[in-house]
Every structure is written in structure tokens, then in C-alpha cells.
Amino acid sequence: MNIAIIGSGHIGGTLGKIWAAQGHLVTFGSRDPQSERMRTLLESIGPNAAAASVKEAAAFGNIVVLAVPGTEIERVLEEAGDLKRKIVVNATILFDGRSADAEVRRIANGARVVRAFHTSMWEALANPLFGVANATLFMSGEDEEAKQIVLRLGEEAGFDMVDVGGPEAMAEIEKALFSFWTALSPQFGRDYAIRVLRREESQPS
Ligand SMILES: NC(=O)c1ccc[n+]([C@@H]2O[C@H](COP(=O)([O-])OP(=O)(O)OC[C@H]3O[C@@H](n4cnc5c(N)ncnc54)[C@H](OP(=O)(O)O)[C@@H]3O)[C@@H](O)[C@H]2O)c1
Fold first, then answer.
1. pLDDT tens for each residue of the chain, 205 residues long
2. If you measure from the C-alpha of residue 32 to the centroid of ligand 1, how many angstroms do you get, rounded to a whole number?
3. CATH number for the domain formed by residue range(s) 2-202
């Protein structure tokens, strides 16, 4: 697939590396596509990745992943231009009480918004396997077909994807995860993850 990733930091750079290695074509939409930092990132990924302006990257991607600070959502979506019918995957978080999910759904008019890749720390994104179990990532959205495509991208990248339903369900998950992280991080640092165990996959066949 052609994947645009807006933001080339911990989350964007990590996802870009994984998907390019899977054979997808990744273009980072960046404030400075020619920067030394970007050159180093692209060299570490190889020929399946490139960098461009936010507008050019968004035009390239069938899927446009948002991995910028939450405060930049409005600016990058404006710069991205027409996203109608594109799958916009929102990994951003806002820390000011507003919902980043609601913001993106409000601004990215006509896009097929999927909320995903924001429910673990980037360290677990970079390496989702913990012993024999892979990390669970929660996702949500209102477009079932778009969610299936994002779910497959997540599974290809090694995650246990759990579709929780729509935005209201995700808001509950986000609240719960925030409490988990606040309580657990003093003990476990950043490189830990949550895994949902389902009875049906634990049954002997
Ligand atoms: N880090 C985590 O563990 C984690 C976990 C869950 C969710 N998130 C969320 O995911 C999003 C990205 O997080 P991250 O950790 O990848 O952040 P990061 O490492 O700081 O990277 C953010 C990227 O966004 C771009 N950007 C655009 N405008 C920016 C601005 N004004 N200031 C800084 N960067 C700007 C930059 O790429 P260019 O220079 O190429 O434009 C930058 O590399 C955030 O909304 C964060 O809350 C992060």
C-alpha cells in the first residue's frame, strides 16, 4: 500500500520502518523533508521510504497516518488538503482535556478516520513481542472496511489488534489506559504492554 506518515518521530518513524520492511511504500510528510535527521531515518529504512511536504505525502497515501503532537492536528490536516475517502489513521494524543479522536473526525471532513497505534508506548510499537505474547493495540472507528484494512496493517506489523467499536468505546479505553499507565509506569518504566487474553484462542483445538 501507499502509506503517508505525517510526523517522523518515535511513533511515525517506528511505524514507517516496520511497514517499509513489509514491502509497503512509505512517504513521511515532514516540516523539513531535507533535514539531516530525515536523511538518517530514510537511510536506516531503505528504498521503500521517502520524505516530502505534508501536502505531497498526503496526496501520495491511500492511508494517511497522523503521528504529530496533538497540538499540530489542525495545522497538518489543513496543510494535507483534500482527504475525502482516504483512510486517516489517528495516533495522536491531546493532553489538554480535548479528544484527539474527536478533533480529527471534526476537521478531516469526508475522511475514513480510524483511531489506532496510540495505545502503547512507542517502545512496544518498535518491538511488540514480549516472550511468547505480542502486545495488544486497541483501535476504533465508524468505517468497517477502513478498520479491516488498518487491522491487517497492525497484524502484519506484529500486533494483536483489538477493534473496540466506535469512538465512545475508545474514549472509555483511553481513560482506563491512562490510569493503567499512571499506576504501572513507576514500576515498569516504558517498555511494557497490555495483552487481552481471549478464551477462544486459549482453547485447545
Ligand atoms: N511516544 C509515544 O510513546 C506515544 C504513544 C502513544 C501516542 N503518542 C502520540 O503520538 C504522537 C507522536 O508522538 P511521538 O512520540 O512520535 O512524537 P515525536 O517523537 O516528538 O515526533 C513528532 C513528529 O511530529 C512532527 N511535528 C510536526 N510539527 C511538530 C511540532 N510543532 N513539534 C514537534 N514535532 C512536530 C515532527 O516530524 P517532522 O520534523 O518530520 O515534521 C516530529 O518528528 C503524539 O501525538 C503523541 O502524543 C506517542
1. 999 999 999 999 999 999 999 999 999 999 999 999 999 999 999 999 999 999 999 999 999 999 999 999 999 999 999 999 999 999 999 999 999 999 999 999 899 999 999 999 999 999 999 999 999 999 999 999 999 999 999 999 999 999 999 999 999 999 999 999 999 999 999 999 999 999 976 555 4
2. 14
3. 3.40.50.720
Q: Whose CA is nearest to atom 7 of ligand 1?
A: 118
The Å distance, Cα 184 to ligand 1 centre, comes to 23
Residue 6 Cα to ligand 1 middle (Å): 9
Secondary structure of the chain as H, E, C letters:
CEEEEECCCHHHHHHHHHHHHCCCEEEEECCCCCCHHHHHHHHHHCCCEEEECHHHHHHHCCEEEECCCHHHHHHHHHHHCCCCCCEEEECCCCCCCCCHHHHHHHHCCCCEEEECCCCCCHHHHHCCEECCEECEEEEEECCHHHHHHHHHHHHHCCCEEEEEECHHHHHHHHHHHHHHHHHHHHHHCCCCCCCCCCHHHHCCC
